[in-house]
Amino acid sequence: xxxxxxxxxxxxxxxxxxxxxxxxxxxxxxxxxxxxxxxxxxxxxxxxxxxxxxxxxxxxxxxxxxxxxxxxxxxxxxxxxxxxxxxxxxxxxxxxxxxxxxxxxxxxxxxxxxxxxxxxxxxxxxxxxxxxxxxxxxxxxxxxxxxxxxxxxxxxxxxxxxxxxx
Length: 166
Hints:
- The protein has one domain: Aconitase, domain 4 (Alpha-Beta Barrel), CATH 3.20.19.10.
- Helices cover about 35% and strands about 20% of the residues.
- It contains 8 helices and 7 strands.
- Strands 4-3-2-1-5-6-7 form a 7-stranded mixed sheet.
């Protein structure tokens, strides 16, 4: 993962739960991450899968990822090409699932309130900045440990890399 991600905004509201991110009806029938990606955000936005581009950014309100602790809801977004998620707040389990698979998340009420669908934004995770052509929003930079996990592609590759160097 680069320290900087640039993409187009996909905007959603509060309490987007894991069933909306990845429909529960596929939980036990789809195991392939690429197939999961074909159903990302299916219940919230029927055009998402066809139009999302690598690096695009989901912006949401409060409690993004609430509901069950389904890992597929994080995996499908990463596999669909989402570069980051910006929200007012995240479900704690969903936040951890995203870090575990290497999908960075940023908490920013100000950015969530001001960014519009289709805006082009740049996120600098190390500097803690979200920029548009006209605005800049600050957030606490991601800690080095989380950056390391995200950079490695998730917790498992991060741990393997660390053990291999030990």
